[in-house]
Structure formats: C-alpha cells, structure tokens
Amino acid sequence: MKYTHLRDLTVSRIGLGCMGMSHIYTGRDQSEEESIRTLHHALDLGVTHFDTAEMYGPFLNEALVGKALKGRRDQVTLASKFGLMSHVGNPSATDSSATNIRIAIEGSLKRLDTDYIDLYYQHRVDKTVPIEDVIGTLSELVAEGKIRYIGLSEAGQGTIRRANAVHPITALQSEYSLWSRDADDGTLDILRELGIGFVPYSPLGRGILSGKIQSRDQLDSDDWRLTNPRFLEGSLQTNLQRLADVQAVADEVGVSLAQVSLAWLLAKGDDWSPIPGTIRIPHLEEDMAAADVVLTASQVLALDTVTQPEGGHHTPAQSLSFDR
C-alpha cells in the first residue's frame, strides 16, 4: 500500500468505506465474523484509512469497526461523521447544533472504543446552523483531544471557504467517480487552493464500475440501489453497455474495471484517498491493488471523456441534502 496526506493527516492511498457491512446494501447481513475478517485483512494489506458514521446502521457500523480494530487502534486513521440524525429532536432530522454534536461524539467514541476520532466529518450541511458555529464547536473538540481533524461532506464552495476560515478543514468527502463529476464545478479548484484533501466516496459508482453487477436480480429486495436512477430497469442495461469505454482502457492497461476506475482517481490528485466499500476479501484485494496501477497521460485523458451514465447518481429528493 502507498500512503498520502489529507492536509497534515497521513492515510493509505486507498481507504475502506465500511458502510456496506451494516447499511442499505446487499450483503450487509453477512456474519459479524466475516466482516471482521475483511477489516483485519484490510489492515494486513496496509490499509489505514477506515470510514464509518453514526448513521450507518444506525450505530451498528461504528460498533463493528470498533470491535474489529480493538488492539490495533494505533495502526489506523478512524473517520466518522455526525449530523444526519438528531439526538435532541426528530431523530431523522439533520442536526449540527452544538448540543447534538457533543452527544454524537460521545456516542461515537464509545461505539468505536477509542478516546479520539482522527477525522470527524459534518455528514451534511445543516442550513439552520451557521457553518462558523459548527466549526467552532468542532474546534473545541479538537482542543479537548476528542477529535484530531475536521472534515466536511457534500459541502458547497461557499461553505468550504467559510468553514476553513474558522479552522483548517482537512478533507472534503463527496461522491466522485468516473461517472459522478459534480465536484468539477469548481469545488476541486477550491480544495487545491486551500490545501484541503479529497475523499471520494462511491468511487465505483455503487458497484457498477466494478463490473460485478450485471442485473437487478443480484440485489436484495430492500437494497437501496433498486431505487437509484442508474439502477432502474432499462437504465441499468444501458449503463452496463456504456462501460465499454472504461473496459477498453482497462484491457489496454491489463487490469480490472474496478482497478482502472480507482487508478484514474489516484491520477487526478496526490492528496486524494478514495474509499471503495466492500464486504468480501477477494474484492478488497482487487481494489487495494489499484494503488500500484500507473496510467499514462493518454489513458487518463481517455477516461476523462468516457460516456457518462443514464440517470442521476441520486434521486432528486436525496440531492436536496447536498450543499450546492
């Protein structure tokens, strides 16, 4: 494994998104022992960047990660998130009030079985609480030693600037992949200007860019992706055909679809650490091997211009939670 920096925070070049072991995807009902084996194998491969959130489960994923990493805390960078649920009001409401943040951090610390969280994200921007107040509360947690670094997720350009003016923001986590380019709206330019690292989530397009999903029948009946515009009947088949552009480059390099998709991200930014999610060791090994894939400038350019998918990467209702 190779390593990089999100601002001053050292992380593995590719991290592991742990959500799918506990939340919304097919396979989340695998045994705890299987999930722990996958997490331990990630450590053995040199992965140090593990991403979770109180919302995943809710709470189940943090508890799983905490159990798996017990005794190896000093080997890892733990990232978690707050703000997509309230502990003081409507549980399903976005809440970044100071009171809620302080309740959330104590719960996350307990479930993760740790004294501190390395990178603590505001999961979504709360438009009822000024970002300056949110970052003020988080900077207090830094001073208290409960968190080390502050992150934002799906934050817009103005929010990023205002937040960074209060306290250095270490990373922005947003969806970004060959097939999801929202951050090309100028957000990536701001990150480079301010020295903020980037953590692309869903870097494999929720599985389509892995080449492993060929039919909706592979997904459990309550898998969230069945409602995603890109996985709808008709759209999925169109999108599988559009993978031909990516497959052509993968064949030229001699790697898998997943590996070329991740290698493209690594080629786009030295201070990027994508977090593909998987629950199975063979897929984990495939994804992490992408850290050693080197693309030529012409191959990167070819991937820059691949045919984009049919359908949005979120439903219109889900997109309302983004700070655009």
Automatic annotation (TrEMBL):
PANTHER family found in the cross-reference section: AFLATOXIN B1 ALDEHYDE REDUCTASE, ALDO-KETO REDUCTASE YAKC [NADP(+)]
GO-annotated molecular function: oxidoreductase activity
Domain NADP-dependent oxidoreductase: from-to ranges: 14-306
Keywords: Oxidoreductase
Entry GO terms, CC: cytoplasm
Superkingdom of the organism of origin: Bacteria
Gene3D superfamilies the UniProt entry points to: NADP-dependent oxidoreductase domain (3.20.20.100)
Pfam families: Aldo_ket_red
Name used for this protein in its record: Aryl-alcohol dehydrogenase-like predicted oxidoreductase
Organism this protein belongs to: Alpinimonas psychrophila
